[in-house]
Design brief:
- With 480 residues, the protein is α/β, with parallel strands linked by helices.
- The chain contains 17 helices and 18 strands.
- The protein has a 15-stranded parallel beta sheet.
- α6 (142-151) links the parallel β6 and β7.
- It is globular.
- The two termini are 43 Å apart.
- 33% of the residues are buried.
Length: 480
């Protein structure tokens, strides 16, 4: 790595296969240290860098020019704060990073983002891009998306949030990127309401798209052709999008009975929509969050027809429309259920007993915000759920008596967490750990103690810093 003489300022000198450092500025004796990295080929060095975090890679690039060159030429992932201030530096950035395949462009609300020309330049310099995330880039229009689509036809994943381009930009992407598999769209403001609004269609990506997520879209219904005509769609997530979705879900599931994962959150959907979803006989994962028009009827239909269901998340929003009837249907039909999350659902002892007794493969269970789950229900879980490995209890009417059942029940239990349960004290956490050494117990008291420890460490650091400052201030006087 080049030979250099020792500087009078005590700096490092290096060359060939060794490094030299003087003992002091006034001493001519130096220590020779072997630089073993000079023997490592560039490809091996790049492979080592791949196992490091982004921060560590950044630090490695500051060691020497060779490391900087190797790290830059082999880096695959890059995240940029894409305000307009970065535009003059784009040529230098993408001259150094020539192998980027995964790129994230983020801009905060108070800054002006890069425009179409900036995105065009980036897409030209990254023709092998396979993953792109854009967030808060308000200056990018449909034309910029067209540039991107024409230059980066190998894209597999695309995600955007809080952007101002519209349906034309999304369609340009779908018409050019025939290998696109994953599409995530959040708060897209460029889709206008009205009779002349353009619908989003899958285009050339109709056969490749497997996952579509629509989040917080005022005009989410304009994506109906995309959802209906994507031939191999497996995962569909529709979150906080306006409009009535019952009819659209019926049309989607009529053409897509092979869907395996569906997420619905805060949607205008009723039991009719859930009955339509029940036609997806290969359904593996289903999330229903805060949809107050859904009841036991729709949940029962999904349980009776989707026999392969393994993950089920239900947030009843405390409407009491989902209860024992739905849980009993799940218990009777979902024999493969491995994960169950109940939020704002108020089942009785009968419902929880059915789940505990018949779902023998249940490994993960979360019970949150229930007014009816108490010690009796918890004891039933401890006795019946033999396969259970992880349990979370939050805001339930549980006491220490109920928690004591886990000292002997659930033989495979590895982790238990209880939060905001007024009847559960910190002593039960210590007691459970003493009874079952292999059991990880997390409680409010543990978190409070951790926060207190952080505060103490911060205070100690401040005191040490002040002490060091005081010593440094006294040193000139001592030297005098």
């Amino acid at each position: 790595m080049g030979q250099a003489t020792t500087t009078p300022f005590g700096g490092w000198s290096h060359g060939g296969h060794g490094l030299e450092q003087p003992l002091s500025n006034d001493c001519s004796i130096s220590i020779s240290i072997e630089d073993y990295t000079s023997e490592i080929p560039d490809d091996c060095l790049a492979l080592i860098f791949q196992f490091l975090s982004t921060g560590d890679c950044n630090n490695c690039s500051l060691v020497c020019l060779r490391w900087r060159s190797v790290e830059g030429q082999r880096r695959r992932r890059l995240a940029l704060h894409s305000s307009t201030n970065i535009t003059p530096f784009l040529p230098a950035i993408f001259t150094r990073f020539v192998s980027v395949t995964k790129l994230a462009l983020r801009c905060d609300r108070r800054s002006i983002s890069i425009d179409d020309d900036g995105l065009n330049f980036i897409s030209q310099r990254c023709p092998n891009l396979t993953s792109l995330k854009i967030r808060g880039c308000h200056e990018i229009t449909d034309q910029g998306m067209l540039y991107l689509a024409q230059n980066c036809k190998l894209l597999l994943k695309f995600a955007c949030g809080s952007c101002n381009f519209g349906a034309k930009g999304i369609n340009a992407l779908l018409n050019n990127c025939s290998s696109l598999e994953y599409l995530y769209i959040k708060r897209l403001r460029g889709i206008n309401d009205g009779s002349k609004a353009e619908l989003v269609v899958p285009g050339k990506a109709a056969s490749s798209l497997t996952s579509i997520t629509l989040r917080e879209l005022y005009n989410g219904q304009f994506f109906a052709p995309l959802l209906i005509e994507s031939k191999n769609l497996r995962t569909m997530k529709i979150l906080k999008c306006s409009g009535d979705w019952d009819g659209l879900l019926q049309e989607i599931t009529r053409r897509k009975p092979c869907l395996t994962e569906i997420h619905l959150e805060k949607l205008q959907v009723s039991d009719s929509g859930l009955i339509a979803i029940s036609k997806c006989t290969y359904l593996d994962t289903f999330y229903l969050v805060k949809s107050p028009d859904c009841s036991n009827e729709g949940i029962s239909a999904i349980a009776e027809n989707c026999k392969l269901l393994r993950k089920l998340h239900l947030d009843g929003w405390r409407t009491n429309r989902i209860g024992d009837e739905g849980l009993i249907a799940i218990a009777n039909n979902s024999v493969n259920l491995a994960e169950l999350v109940l939020v704002g659902v108020n089942p009785s002892y009968i419902g929880m007993m059915e789940i505990s007794s018949k779902c023998q493969k249940l490994e993960r269970l979360a019970l949150c915000g229930s007014e009816t789950i108490g010690d009796k229900e918890i004891s039933c879980i401890a006795e019946k759920c033999i396969a259970l490995k992880k349990l979370c209890i939050k805001c339930c009417r549980v006491t220490n008596s109920g928690m004591e059942a886990f000292a002997y029940g659930c033989p495979n239990l590895m982790n238990i967490k209880f939060k905001k349960c007024r009847g559960v004290s910190s002593e039960i956490s210590v007691w459970l750990k003493a009874k079952r050494a292999s059991l990880a117990v997390n409680s409010d008291s543990d978190e409070a103690e951790s926060e207190a420890m952080k505060v103490r460490n911060t205070s100690n650091a401040v005191e040490i810093g002040e002490a060091s400052l005081a010593v440094n201030l006294e040193l000139p006087q001592l030297l005098l």
